[in-house]
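Input.
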Amino acid sequence: MARALAAPLAILRGAAIVLWTLAAWSVWIGVLALGSQRSARLRPRIMGRWSRGCLWVFGGRIEVVGTPPEAPFLLVSNHLSYVDVIVIASAAPARFLSRADVADWPGIGPIARSAGTLFIDRAAKRDLPRVIAQVQGAFEAGHGVIFFPEGTSSGGAEVLPFKPSLFQFAAATGTPVHCASLSYERPPGRESAAKSLCWWADMAFGSHAFGLLARPGFTARLEFAPEPVAAADRKDLAALAQAQVEALFVPTDATRGAGTSA
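Output.
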């Protein structure tokens, strides 16, 4: 019975997300008429409401430990899935830094651009100064900026090494960096979150997203560190941030029972 209901549930949830996105987009278009300054202030709020609605449609529940930073802020977290964006934005609305090709993804690209996402071409080192300038501009405009310094997503067994390049703005200006740790859990007896929530290695996006929409809910645990870290050298700052994230880190599915099933 559960398998028979999976496809209709996925279609229903997918349609709900499309309708919710169109509603949020229509609000954003109306906000743009208020002028650039007011729309810039309201964009994170709209992003936060949209994220909370999407999380509800997915059947997701979020456990927030600690206090999210207040804008403007720089926040880093470990990276597990595309779902990370709506989980973190539901608690700390901000602008995200993403790899450049996401801007061209069907459906997701336009949403990301409308949300004010900053894009970086990780394969081109010459793109770094442009991105750092954009991060600085967003921060000075009073926005939160969130990035994933691992540079890729993982299955949640460990925190991957942080890449120091994106810490340059914070190191050069003495801006503190806030840290958070994210993990997922599925109900006992269900397929592990490492397979069904985390999007990593060679998983195909389309089939993974459809499977996520077709499955029952999940729990996301998001913990914020009590104090930010700061350093004048970007490598030192990346090391401090990684140590803080690792101190909070709970491996995905660490608290669920053994055994999995679809």
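Strands lie at 60-65, 73-77, 95-99, 118-120, 144-147, 178-185, 218-224.
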